[in-house]
Design goal:
about 550 residues, alpha+beta, Flavocytochrome C3, Chain A, domain 1, six-stranded antiparallel beta sheet, five-stranded parallel beta sheet
């Protein structure tokens, strides 16, 4: 019986580890930082589930419909149905292990979130990620005490161990001692988004570099939908990164406006009377840029939260208020705050099927590093759900493979792997390549894009790739950046978070497909793949 190696100890990684341990299977939980410092701790707004505790006749079918519509019908519908149909039991499970969500009696209270007509988002003030992580960390510790989960803290992913095209293990590096360790077994990647491509411009932790994604891409893993990068409409600038002002603020009554002809113009409410400030994030961010370009308007957009009730501030948003006071020196109870879109989430990533299998046998991916559930735009409240459900799904599938005698035999003889001498986390101290890629990419991959800007960035990346001074890690990072640009060039339409000024219309006949990027050892190849056909809802996924 093979071990399961899990890279990353956030919500997706913990979910995978707990699921494996619940079935009595041993696994390794490998991460650079402890779970308490994973990006999942930073998640704010909530987790979606059609629990219908607010009496609005909500159903998993409506959750499915909103998720597909929000992703502009680019997600795998079978995977999305699995996510939405299992969401209520996922949240109930979180409550059962001690996650102190905001409750009324025995039922979670739900709030409104963007792109959804029903109250569907369970929460714990605006610190939901921290609350869920604490509960899952405690749950994992029970299995650690039983020896079912073995922690490998301060260890960094180096490369996959391959045998005849099958992943049979992983090499990791102890970043304290620089010791390289080879671990047998199948691999679940839960390593987060590609923040290193945009240092200082994202709301995510700088530790989630995307280097794991870049490394497995170099080794032949397919990536998908890289062009879809979510800009969250309400962020503020703090040293080294963007700070999120949770969508929960708008869910509780916060209003966006810009000065027009000297007066506040609540443009989202005028343009989208049904959902107003709670339109999907791609729509809100795009509209913010459009109104800023209007000659009659100022160049600053504000979030007005002064109308939110005292009860709400005290019981639901007290931590968000404190963030504004600490980082801006402004009290949102008394005055509006200036906000602007910031990179928040990568819908694209490692290509997986509905069971979280990649194109490499023995390799799985879940959470933000994987391309699943969100299509062209993610709905708020679906990321934590996708991470927990995705980790669970990946672990169940990996357990099946780990019991396969044929797969087990492939691990007996380990083939030589040229990437065994890859770079370690501590070896690279030159961060100029990060700043360089950020400057190039932010010009080309903003909210609005065009062919000339993308091609100009591509030339810059190519010129740097042809140099001789790059470490292997830097080379792979730039290769990943190139794959993002090529994917954006290939999609000659506007859909969700990908808006092409030179192709402003949505084109379902040609581009309602998944963008696939693969590196064959010499060049990156981009193709379009049909989206799976939806099966009936009675199928167990």
């Amino acid at each position: 019986m093979s071990m399961i190696n899990i890279i990353g100890a956030g919500l997706a990684g913990l979910s995978a580890a707990i699921t494996a341990a619940e079935s009595g299977r041993k696994c390794r939980l490998i991460s650079v930082l402890p779970s308490e410092r994973a990006q999942s701790v930073m998640a704010e707004g909530g987790i979606n589930a059609a629990l219908d505790t607010m009496g609005e006749n909500d159903t998993p079918q409506e959750h499915f419909n909103d998720t597909m519509k929000g992703g502009v019908y680019l997600a795998d519908p079978n995977a999305v149905w699995g996510l939405c149909s299992h969401a209520p039991e996922t949240v109930r499970w979180l409550c059962s292990i001690g996650a102190p969500l905001y409750m009324k009696g025995k039922d979670p209270v739900l709030r409104n979130f963007g792109g959804q007509k029903k109250k569907r988002t369970a929460y714990a003030k605006s610190s939901t990620g921290k609350i869920l992580m604490n509960a899952m960390i405690d749950q994992a510790r029970k299995y650690e005490a039983e020896g079912l989960i073995e922690r490998y803290p301060h260890h960094e992913f180096s490369c996959l161990v391959m045998n005849e095209g099958v992943c049979v293990g992983v090499d990791v590096i102890d970043i304290y001692t620089h010791q390289r360790i080879s671990l047998d077994g199948c691999v679940i990647l839960a390593s987060g988004g590609m923040n290193s491509l945009f240092p200082g411009l994202t709301t995510g932790t700088t530790v989630n570099t995307g280097d794991v994604t870049a490394a497995v891409f170099f080794q032949g893993a397919e990536l998908a939908n890289l062009e879809f990068i979510q800009y969250h409409p309400t962020t503020i600038s703090i040293p080294q990164k963007r700070c999120l002002i949770s969508e929960a603020a708008r869910g509780e009554g916060g209003r966006l406006y810009i000065e027009k002809d000297g007066k506040p113009w609540y443009f989202m409410e005028e343009k989208y009377p049904e959902l107003g400030n709670l339109m999907p994030r791609d729509v809100v961010s795009r509209e913010m840029e459009i109104v800023r370009r209007d000659d009659k308007c100022g160049d600053r957009v504000y979030l007005d939260m002064t109308g939110i009730s005292e009860f709400c501030w005290k019981n639901k948003l007290s931590d968000l208020r404190q963030e504004c006071i600490d980082f801006l020196g402004l009290d949102p109870v008394k005055e509006p705050i200036e906000v602007s879109p910031g990179i928040h989430y990568f819908m694209g990533g490692i290509c997986v099927d509905e069971h979280h299998r990649t194109n490499i046998r023995g390799l799985y991916a879940a959470g933000e590093c994987a391309c699943q559930y969100h299509g062209a735009n993610r709905l708020g409240g679906n990321s934590m759900l996708g991470a927990i459900y995705g980790g669970k799904t990946a672990a169940k599938e990996a357990a099946v493979l780990a019991d396969d005698a044929e797969y087990d035999a492939k691990q007996v003889k380990r083939m030589e792997n040229e990437e065994q001498n890859g770079d370690s986390f501590v070896a690279e101290q030159d961060y100029s390549i990060n700043r360089y890629s950020a400057e190039v990419l932010k010009q080309a991959l903003g909210i609005f894009r065009n062919e000339q800007g993308l091609n100009d960035a591509l030339k810059e990346i190519d010129s740097r790739l042809s140099g001789n001074s790059l470490t292997k890690k830097q080379y792979r990072r730039l290769l990943l950046a190139k794959a993002v640009l090529l994917s954006a060039l290939e999609r000659k339409e506007s859909r969700g978070a990908h808006t092409r000024e030179d192709y402003p219309d949505r084109n379902d006949s040609e581009f309602q497909k998944t963008t696939i990027a693969v590196f064959d050892g010499k060049e990156i190849k981009i193709s379009m793949r049909d989206i799976p056909v939806k099966r009936g809802n009675d199928n167990e996924i």
